[in-house]
Amino acid sequence: MKQIKLLCPSLPNIPWQDKPAGCTAPVWRYQENPIIHRNPVPGVARIFNSAVVPYEGGFIGVFRGEQINGIPYLYLGRSADAIHWTFDPEKIALVDGEGKSFLPPYAYDPRLIEIDGVYYIVWCQDAYGAALGMAKTTDFKTFTRLENPFLPFNRNGVLFPRKVDGKFLLLSRPSDSGHTPFGDIYLSESRDMEYWGHHRHVMGKASEWWENVKIGGGAAPIETSEGWLLIYHGVTGTCNGFVYSIGGAILDRDEPSRVKYRCGNFLLTPEEWYEERGFTSNVCFPCASLQDGDTGRIAIYYGAADTYVALAFTDVETVVNYIIEHDTAGASDHEEGRR
User: Fold this and answer.
1) For residues 13 and 292, what is the distance between their CA atoms, to the nearest angstrom?
2) What is the DSSP secondary structure assignment for residue 240, as one 8-state letter?
3) Is 227 left (phi over 0), alpha (psi -120 to 50) or beta?
4) Looking at the whole model, is its pTM more than 0.90?
5) CB count, 10 Å around CB of 28?
6) Helix (H, G, I), strand (E, B) or coil at 318
7) Which of 68, 94, 117, 338 is the most exposed place for a label (fewest CB within 10 A)?
8) CA distances (Å), origin 171, targets 3, 199, 221, 304, 322
9) Is the pLDDT at 233 greater than 90, yes or no?
């Protein structure tokens, strides 16, 4: 078993619950799940597929709020312990560079990350087709829209938590105009968060049943001594629809389009009532993580059944070694992703 370290700051108040006795899985659920239930705010029926970060000694997050009219939008939430949340009653007021209101028709599945003191949000929206939207803030009061990074059709935009070789890195999943019965993860880079290029294939769907239809980025990659730990989702099809599970891979630290290890087993799959039953059944959809560089602890936030927010735990040595031990990465994974 390798000694693996998290390469990130300490987070002593990370939410945590020890592994239950007899549990042999590399990731274990919070026993009090779900942490966010239905109808959390007036006018919002469900919050799920949402992202959190440490902020001013506590925690703050951007949440997908499915409004009672069925239109998803972004809401701001705050917490002292990253488990119990309060939400602003109004959706986030996005503005353009001149401070004028600039709201997309809808917005969902946000990711949130801090880079060099600036907090960036990436979400999916309509831009004459499913596309990625981006905004930035330094105070969680003013949220300024940036240019959309790509043309339609694209989803699952996930920024890396730091620049690599002076460049911002973004994972995405090119799609179609529908629910996307296919999908691979790609890597793109930018020096200014406006112009994106040097696109590289990272990895595609696999033969394992739980990810044999499509995959997509989840939480922001976590830097470790072994490489970037990528928590992602894998999808399979059944006679009752798609099933979303959580998987794990390790990307090269210097060339993240190269996959070093890819776990052939899922890390988490729908098994509990709040994952199996809801607006969209059988969904575990990771969007965020918190990690403590001192202890190696990792807390994973995931949407459950498109209805709830749930929490799971692991530690860096447990999950990285599990991925290495169950590695099924193939030749196309190990490639630079350039053809």
Assistant:
1) 9
2) T
3) left
4) yes
5) 17
6) helix
7) 117
8) 27, 10, 9, 22, 23
9) yes
- Give the CB-side neighbour count of residue 59, counting CA atoms within 13 A: 27
CA distances in angstroms from 305 to 73, 109, 331, listed in the order given: 18, 13, 34
- Backbone angles phi and psi of 259, in degrees to 5: -95, 120
Please check whether residue 90 is in contact with residue 77, taking contact to mean a CB–CB distance below 8 angstroms: no
Reported as a single tens digit per residue, the pLDDT across 109-132 is 999 999 999 999 999 999 999 999
Nearest to 150 by CA among 114, 180, 178, 187: 187
Q: What angle do CA 332, 337, 339 make, to 5 degrees?
A: 100
Query: Quick one: residue 82, left, alpha or beta (phi over 0 = left, psi -120 to 50 = alpha)?
Result: left
At position 331, the amino acid (one-letter code) is: A
CA distances from 69 to 42, 54, 131, 308 (A): 12, 31, 22, 18
Single-letter amino acid code for the residue at 133: G
Q: Which two tokens stand for residue 128?
A: 């004459």
Is the backbone of residue 274 left (phi > 0), alpha (psi -120 to 50) or beta? alpha
Name the residue type at position 310: A
* 126-160: burial string, b at 16+ Cβ within 10 Å, e else: ebeebbbbbbebeebeebbbbebbbebbbbbbbbb
